[in-house]
Amino acid sequence: MTTLARTMLRDADEAADVVEDTLLRVRDAAPGFRGERGLTTWVMRIVANRCRDLLRRRKFTAGRPEDFDPLAESGLRAEPIEGWDLAIDQERMMAMLERAIDALPPDQREAVVLRDRLGLSYDEVAETLGLKVAAVKSRLFRARTALRAALRPLGERGST
Q1: Residues 6 or more apart whose Cβ sits within 8 Å of residue 62
Q2: What share of the chain is helix, strand, coil (3-state, %, to 5)?
Q3: How many helices (H) and strands (E) does the chain have?
Q4: Partner of 101 at 20 to 30 A CA spacing, among 11, 57, 90, 108?
Q5: Could you please report the per-residue DSSP string of 128-148?
Q6: Is the pTM of this model over 0.90?
């Protein structure tokens, strides 16, 4: 829930508020949960809808992508292994990837986060976003094509 909220909102405090609000909504609505669809998709849909509500209410300002360090935020570190090409800088690659994801249209960004970052199945992503699986696959195809194009200069540098 936190990963989805942080990725959509780009604000740790707002993301925490959304997660807290979602947990309260889940608790209050739990007696009415029929279990027709998965719990994960139900909860993620609440998070995504809550984030969309907040984004509609404010102008989206994500800040500079360089200020967002996904490795540090997750408690990981990048330590190059001796012998690797020093031009490959994991922190810069992650920043480029974050900028590329941030540049995606919101519908594509949501699909990428749910499927590729959170590992939801196509059916779960479709249910979370209220779409058909074919529409999810289409969004992911367009998003991944855009990400490859945005990251292509990095690959060209590494091969020269």
Answers
A1: 10, 68, 102
A2: 70, 0, 30
A3: 8, 0
A4: 57
A5: HHT--HHHHHHHHHHHHHHHH
A6: no
Could you tell me how many residues make up the chain?
160
66/68 Cα distance (integer angstroms): 5
Nearest to 149 by CA among 111, 112, 103: 103
**Type of residue found at 119:** G
Which fold would CATH assign to domain 87-160? Arc Repressor Mutant, subunit A (1.10.10)
CA 13 and chain centroid, separation:
16
Q: Which two tokens stand for residue 135?
A: 């529409």
Helix, strand or coil for residue 47?
helix
**Domain regions of the chain by residue span:** 1-59, 87-160
Phi-psi region of 75 (alpha: psi -120 to 50; beta: other; left: phi over 0): left
